[in-house]
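agent> step 3/5: call structure_predict on target 'beta-galactosidase' (Enterococcus columbae DSM 7374 = ATCC 51263).
agent> reason: downstream docking stage needs a structural representation; sequence fetched in step 2, passing through unchanged.
tool.input:
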Amino acid sequence: MEIVLLGDSLVAQYEDSKRPLAGWGEFLKSELIDVDENLHIDNLAVPGRSFSEFFYQDSQAVIDRLQKNDIVIISFGHNDALHRNNIDVKNFENLYHQFLEKISKAEAKPVVVTPPLPLEKFSELDFEKFYQILDIEKKVARKENLPCIELDRYTKLLKYKYQDISSLYLQLREGDSENYPEGIKDPVHFNIQGAKELSKFVAKMLKAQVLEMDINENYFGACMYPEVFGIDIFEKDVVRAKSLGMNFIRMGEFIWSDIEPIEGQYHFDLLKKSLQICQQYQMNVCLCVPTPTPPRWFTMKYPDSCIVDERGKQTHGSRQHCCTNNPDFRNKCYQIAYQIGCLANQYTCVKFVQLDNEFKCHVDLCFCDECKKQWIEYLQKEFITIEKLNAFFGTNIWSQTYRKFSEVVLPSATPFLHSVALMNSFKQFHESKINEFAKELSYIVRMNANCRITHNSSLGFNLDNEELFSFLDDSGFDTYASAQDYAAFQLNVDRWRNLKPNRSSALLLETSTSHAGHIQNYVQPHPKDYLSCELFSTMAGNLKAFNFWHFRGHRFGVEQPHSSVLTPSGEESLSYDEVVKTGKLFNYLLPIIEKTTYIPSKIGLIYSDDAKRKYTVETGGHYNYRSLITNFYKNLIDAGLNVEVISDKHSLHDFDVIFIPFVRNISSNLLDELDEFIQRNGKLIVGPMTGDRDEFGNWHTENGLGDLGELLCLSGINQEYFPNEQVFLNELMHTTERYVGYFTLIKNHLDWEPIIRFDKENSFVLRRNNTIFIGALPADFSNSYLKRIIISEIAQIDSDDYHLTCSKGIVKYKRSRDGKDYVFLVNMSSEASLFILKNSMIELFHHTRYKNGEYYLAPYEKLILVEE
Ligand SMILES: [Zn+2]
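tool.output (status=ok):
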């Protein structure tokens, strides 16, 4: 693998006669030495180069020499925005797009690095154009799903690290340097210190975004609160945790008022003592940035920072009560994030920094004045002209046409519903803004910390997780699924593993020892022996952490009814024995997991945050995405299939089977992937409710399924809801079946073989070659003939089928070592479940041979079967 650096004077290599002038590309190799000693970096950056000039003169030569998997870092911008170069911005966008596409075609990996900001304005640079170019670079990267390292944002934030940021630029007084005897005031270029600062950051981002750095350890632990219980109890709990086989502690996510009791006065005594104790007992730590709980002094001083949701302005208290778009709030958050980054770097036990806590778990939309202002700016950037917005939103319905951006309303209370596009866009605005906040927090933490950065997200919140975790090192999540709802737990394991391309850096950061709960929600505890099943499937499924919330129960606040390892008074909780068992299992599995490699499934199920958002706007009064997708997924795993739950931006290259249910808008990226997938004869199952809306949630202009309809040659599409079950004939199985709900009906087409006809002219389950289109689900999908058809065709492709087939409740994962397969089986259900072994295998727990034949797995029983 080689890294090719393309750029201008800010990236280039300099002779001694130019020092202290330096380009950030000069130091990249030394910053990446821990990744690969033999890493080759070819710095082709040329001072004075605009991207346009590079494109016409040298880009083809660069493309011609690229090898598969080479990394191409592209960092231009200043010279394209110089008045004298007179470059057309539209043309820049075109060329930029073309070049990135060519790199991807050569199977190399393009990385966009936006240029750093100048120290101050200067007359040669057209600043308006400069910012337009920055926007284009970011937009193209986002559209093409490419890594983007924003040096402009990083330099803007460097004021949190340096009192005088000019010390990083080439600013010399007369006599400071022999090379510049008369001194120099260069607002664009960096000195050695500045270039090293940028280089360090680029290297950290490459590790997080591009180089797929695995986590090589496994963690088992719990969340602790020294600020609540004091340092003595904290130490006792650490010792106790150690005795339970734990090696991991998360802390600090709500500690703000303890470490900054008065504005600007930081007290880290307690946190430092806690970290010293962790260090002493060799506990690995996830240290949090405590931004979800701004202290009272903050909301007293900045009352406008409180969030304004549908119920009105929220008061201080609880959590997440401040608007993350409020500039005062961001400023304070960034100051404390900087402090946490410094602290993280002082203790080797800190392996992770977690940003905030469960973004958007209590709040989603904010209607404050600041959000209103930023909403208009967002629309301007997204749509450029108001005519375009009107066209995409379809505002001529109900006389909603806007004459200028400032007239566009926020979707707050109205007599009836707002337009679907307005609501979707406002939600999208908030998703992108929370990611911007997270990005800036992470950039600031990285100014000092060398550890990995993560966040504890959830499938329950309205976030664009794919984008959020693209700039963090590891995907992290919380789940409190009940034992009855084990499919929801498994969906998390299979989804979060696939957030990062290497599939080996996902962290379960919060789960209960027995049940979740707060003062307004009591929850049933897990049955005996269930907890260790969760750990087993988490480890077999290649997740890297299994962490309890929380170690010692709270006696204050609202979460007293939440399960924990110890009660608030330090006695063993009812789930203590289960924790003991789980700790023993963790340490038993550890060497097996470390020596084996996870084997991904060839079956992919597409999960889409975009679809999830669309279902919050268009529910039809019946639907929500989370339960739709969880039920669909449960049907697959209960049929004994292994599934990788991937996003709609994921490559389909490694899959033999793809399911796309409920993805209402098919993005152009997914469409391209599907085109290729169909051409290589992959097994595709589309629907229900897939492809029937555009990116704003509107109906398509031509053909009811838009580009997907075009790709599949489907037309004459109608959509109707039928609340009562209706009986239809399954022509393939010669049997009848009941269907209910939202139907997508397709006019008969010669290419397509109807499996279930709606009437003479229309069908809703059809097949063409290896594609099955499903326009509605059976009333009882889990016992349906339709499911049988799908599963029987797919079971042959399932890679584990060679060893065994299993039935409802059994979750299985395959790992391998030295060419031998290890099949991990766990029955997550409360009923015994059958599996059929096709070849004899050795079972590791009991060291016994399992001959081929039928076996029952008792509820919560686990086996590790190894090829003989
Ligand atoms: Zn707001």
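agent> step 4/5: record observation. Residues 420-446 form the longest helix (27 residues).
agent> proceeding.
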